[in-house]
Amino acid sequence: MIVYDTGVLVAADRGDRTTLARHAAALRRDISPYVPAGVLAQAWRGGPQPGLSRLLAGCTPVPMDARTARAAGTLCGRAGTTDVVDASVVVTAALLRSAVLTGDVEDITRLAALLDPPPPVDAM
Questions:
Q1: How far apart are CA 85 and CA 57, in angstroms?
Q2: pLDDT tens, 62-84?
């Protein structure tokens, strides 16, 4: 399983072939990547966004409930950061026992390292 961060969605929206190929490979393996709600909000600009829409058609959206919101806020506090979307990506991956695919390896890895066990982080 894999959780996408905003960088993945932005890359798909721009038609990045490597990102789209990795996504297609995941779908061929019957993996439906997870997309936290905050990630979608950061990437969506009102359309038309055909590349992003195609990518999202194969993904599983993950709403941010109170449990995830509190955990993301706590993680931000521990990390000394304010990016709740990045924190929600890491928390979602931990809760789902999944890896993170990210364009922001440094920040996501720093957040992931604060969890036990840390979710794996993979660069786009």
A1: 21
A2: 999 999 999 999 999 999 999 99
Identity of residue 86: D
What is d(CA 85, CA 92) in angstroms, rounded to the nearest whole number?
Answer: 10
121 contacts 5 by C-beta, under 8 angstroms = no
Q: For the beta carbon of residue 92, count every other beta carbon within 10 angstroms.
A: 26
Q: Rounded to whole angstroms, what are the CA distances from 72 to 20, 28, 49, 86, 115?
A: 28, 31, 28, 8, 11
pLDDT per residue as tens digits for the range 35-51: 999 999 999 998 788 88
Whole-number Å distance between alpha carbons of 13 and 7: 10
121 and 100 in contact (C-beta within 8 Å)? yes
CATH number for domain 2-123, candidates 3.40.50.1010, 3.30.465.10, 3.40.47.10, 3.10.100.10: 3.40.50.1010
Contacts of 112 (CB under 8 A, 6+ apart): 90, 93, 94, 100, 118, 119, 120, 121
